Amino acid sequence: MTLYVLRHGQTPWNKLKKLQGRMDIPLNENGLELAAKTGEAMLEVPIDLVISSPLKRARQTAELITVGRNIPMIIDERIEEISFGDYEGESVLDGESEVIPADFLHKFYNKPLKCNRPPHGESFQDVIERTKDFYKSLIENPEYKDKNILISSHGAASRCFLCNFYTDKEDVWRGQIPPNCSVTIVDVNDDGQGRVRVLDKQFAKLDDKK
Fold first, then answer.
1. Quick check: is 210 in a domain?
2. Is 8 labeled as ligand-binding?
3. Which residues bind substrate (predicted)?
4. Which residues are catalytic?
5. Cα–Cα distance, 36 to 88 (Å, whole number)
6. How many domains would you assign to the chain?
7. Is 148 flagged in the annotation as binding?
8. Any known ligand binding at 173?
9. 209 pLDDT above the threshold of 70
């Protein structure tokens, strides 16, 4: 089995540096364009199945990447973005939010497993557990053996999913938040053991910085 773990394209809230979480924000013009270009660049990449988060930005990205290829898509809530609860819609820029505690953002980016669960939201460990359950369902399904699966997810959720393939669970971010429309390629053997072959591959970029 080969997994292509995708982060969705840019949204208006990405550009404004707002926490999106479960807010169903669609792609902006840049996001639509980059997803389409990524799809063109991935035309020769074999994909048998798409599994997407139910959030619009993930579904739009997957649809644009596989347009015209008649690839079935399954929606799975277990790869939905981390819920920021009461912090959703708040800015992460210094001093712009009166709601988010300063230490929350520091831990979120630097020590995510030490980051407190937002009110009515999720912790990183919560997301690690649900994406672990998602991965278990993949490797236990005989129909998925030897399949090439595109997983359309989100920044934090996709990184939590990758914890299935690293011994060090503390380093959730692996050096950075994955760029929009970047793809991490994971090879899974017959025993269900996965290995990250390529981290954050960008098949395409926009011509101009917008």
1. no
2. yes
3. 7-14, 57
4. 8, 81
5. 28
6. 1
7. no
8. no
9. no
Residue 24 lies in a domain: yes
pLDDT digit string (tens) for 5-31?
999 999 999 999 999 999 999 999 999
Determine whether the annotation assigns residue 60 to a binding site.
Answer: no
pLDDT tops 80 at residue 208: no
Annotation-wise, does 7 bind a ligand? Answer: yes
Note the pLDDT of residue 95. Answer: 85
Task: Judge whether 105 lies within some domain.
Answer: no
Mean pLDDT to the nearest integer, 71-78: 98
Q: Which domain holds residue 171?
A: 2-83+124-202
Percent of the chain, pLDDT > 90?
95
User: Can you tell me the mean pLDDT for 167-195?
Assistant: 96
